[in-house]
Amino acid sequence: MAENTQFSYAPETLSEISSLSIRAIQLVEGLLSGHHRSPHKGSSVEFAEYKDYSPGDDIRHIDWKVVGKTDKYHVKQFEQSTNLKCTLLLDASGSMAYRSPDSKSPGMDKRDYARTLVAAMGYLLLKQFDAVGLTLFNDEVVSHLPPRSKPSHFQNILHGLQDMEFKGITRVEEVVGNLIERLPGRGMLILVSDLLTREDDIFKTLKMLNSRGLEVILFHILHPDEVTLPFEGDLVFESLEDDPDLGLDPFDVRQQYQKAIQEQIEFYKKNCPTLGIDYLFLETTTPLEQVLRYYLLRRKSLRKI
Amino acid sequence: MNFSFTSPWYLLGLLGLALPILIHLLTRRQQTRLKFSAVYLLQQAQKRSVRKSRPNKLLLLLLRCLAIGFLCLALANPILSSGELQNTLMSRPSAHVFILDDSYSMSASSDQGTLFHHATQTLNELIEKIPGNHSFSLVLASNPARMIQDWTEDPGKTLKWLKAARPSHRTTSIGKAVTAAVDLLNTAPQENKQIFILTDMDQNGWNRDEFPAALTEDSRIQINVIDFSGFQKGLNRALVKKVKLGQEFLTNRRIIRVQATIANVLPDRAIKQLPITLFVNGKRQSESTIDLPAKGEATHEFSFPLLNNDPVSGYVEIPEDAMTVDNRRLFVYQPDHKIKALVVDGDPRGVAHQHDSFYVEKALNPFSSPMADIEPTVSTLSEFSERDLNQYSVIILCNVRDLAIGLEQELEKFVLRGGALFIGLGDQVDPKYYNEKLGMLLPVVLKSINQVRIEDKPFHLLARPSSHPVLRVFTGNMLKEMERIPFRTLYSVEPRRDRDFKEPMRFSNQFPAVIESEFGEGKVILYVSSLDRDWNRFPIHPTFLPWIQRWVKYSAQSLENISRYDVAVGAPLVLEEMERPPLVVAPGGKVSIARKNPKSPPVFEDTHRPGVYELYQWMNLSGSDVEDSPSPTPKQLPGDAKRVGSFTVNIDPAESSPGKVSEKELSQYFPGTQVSYSPAEQALNAASVGAGVPLTTLLFLMLAVMMFWEGWVVRKE
Fold it and tell me: For the domain A11-35+82-304, what is the CATH code?
């Protein structure tokens, strides 16, 4: 697992990465035990071309002969036999950094939940020899890892997840507009976001993705606090994004707020299937196994088609 | 409307309002800040939400502030007073002078009686509401203004007086009343000084010259004018302004003529067919109607035969309007059988028939009969100054050179009061004296003596039929005979500027022969030639006798008329012709005595009621004058008192004018002084609401409501 050791990290970061990877791996392994192996076994690859070595490339594919002749590192590239190229699109906006003021609040932090989910999905996909890429965004693309199917790519994903900062505002439309050219023509896009944005036409963007032949799975993650607004007393709400501060008593607006959130959820629930988008609403209290199970079932059904 | 507080120190408690505000601010600081993701959704929800916890906090703050405010106000014991008058009364210890207009214009009718009734009612309520530490006094504004109540803090006596008070028959003098009020206020120790004027704003009472100049310097005095004219019901339309009586001697039967002048006080409406009635000795004597132009006057003459020699009293009356007081005017008249004529001879000679007065005396009473209508008395010039002119109706000056110093003024007074002066000229006459000293009496100046020589053609009268009362009997042959009378000498005259006179007789050369003019109540007749045979032959002509007799009868009025007075209510009567102060019987039967003055004639001052006052001369048992008697004035008229005359007291018609002083004009009377004006309707309402409605209970109730509300809001949150 830890075969790729050329990156240096602070011990805390490393411990966090490992805990994240352990979490993700345990999650996936637990889920897969007793199940059939993935039908995508590592198939033989055929040489395609050379390319300059870049970090993250498997050193096994370095053509040492060429190194000996030219003193340059070239990597042999093969035709991938994987069927699926999946991009994990993770919302890295400020709103995803919400942490409940109540330490006894059930469930994980939203960002941990999202990162674990992405890591687990990445691991699961890699485990099934699918190519996985990771794109983080807020109002722009923060980082982009193109899809790879090598198992070592999981490390890159983990590092990408660990390095990320949740800040800025969410602009799905703009980001996807910029990203769409870089996404594989046919494949899967897993969007993980709280969808808390003033943008009115996220749905239009999703429609556009769908029209490009991407299979889109939308994980809508919200903390229970964001669904129920359980706070009491005279509060000043500071926005994690760019909204001005708002002082009010949550008691006054609770009903209206809950209604608005539910309307939003209901909207996606109702409209996503019409575009062939898989929509899954997740509170951070929802067990991630359930999510992965959902995904596997989804994949299974896709295979059948 | 204003509050006043009996315990204002409690208002300091309002500083406690800072407490809930402080609590509110401190509570605000304890707000928790929370980082949240979906703030924009909260904003949207807040916009849609009806519930407002934050405003509730403001409401709580407001309720708590109000509760503290109400508590402090309630403890300060506020009293609600309405209207400026009440406010001024309720302020710090003050000295108030109430000026009550009790002139007869205040007797104008209103829905509840008279304006005066309203005024006393208002004053009653104002006085009742004066706080105990305030002092007040009361001044009556009818002329002469007088103080009724000196400074007092006890309203009892004044309220009792007000109950019995009635409007007087006098005119108003607000200026004098204000002067009296300022004098009173100058003696008051309080800093806050107020004058309340309760009046109908009748213009007659607001004479600017009578207002004190000192008031302008003392701006601490506040003037409050309460106008009662708004209560007047209907209009004062007309009044009997003047009644003039005369006796007709020219006819065979004695006739009394009553000339009544009726004035219309409506500025823009003529009055048609206004009934006018004459009452004589208590009986309706005659009735008629009269047309009056807008804001003008007209005269109607009644006449009735004189049956006996008794005094005649009565009144002229018009129908009632808003002000009844001025609809009746009284008169009294003492007719006389004889005309007493004083013939002053300016050129007495040794032989009787050469006296200048000889022909006149003979013509007036040819047979020296005591039964004759005219009783001439001949006097020399030296005796003339000692004569009591009031004993005569007619004075005839025959060729008088000049008069003793001051006598011309006596003559003026005599004519002013109704006497007749007949002047015959002659060679003794000093035209310079006549022109300079008798300028008031004579409307013409004596210019020059016109004399014709014996061989020349003399002057002749231009005798033509005339409608003049004296000359209308001369007709036909009598006129022709008069025309033939030769006049050798006569004075030519020249009119004085702006003087009215008649020329009932002229000479053929158009020179005036007789100049007739009126002066005061009397007449002056100037005959430009002599009354003896020196300058003409007229005295020996048969027509002279009726001519001179008729002139005397025409110009004469009765003796009583000369000595009769008609004084305005409240004006003192100087009894010039009386040496001893007489007893005076007022209309109600009250007997009083005229005041005796050591060097001047007696004066009677108690003329406050309109009516006929009888004058009696009475010697008490000791034979001394009543004034010298140690015994007090008799309550009843003594049996041996002798009636010597009578006079009337009537109202001064000036007060009947409907003109009112406007609110704007008020400041002109009190320059530099704070003047507030309020119609009495408001003043009465203010008084009826009450000056001191305590609000403590209400405020405590409000406090309870605030606390209950606050509790409910807190519980709800």
Answer: 3.40.50.410
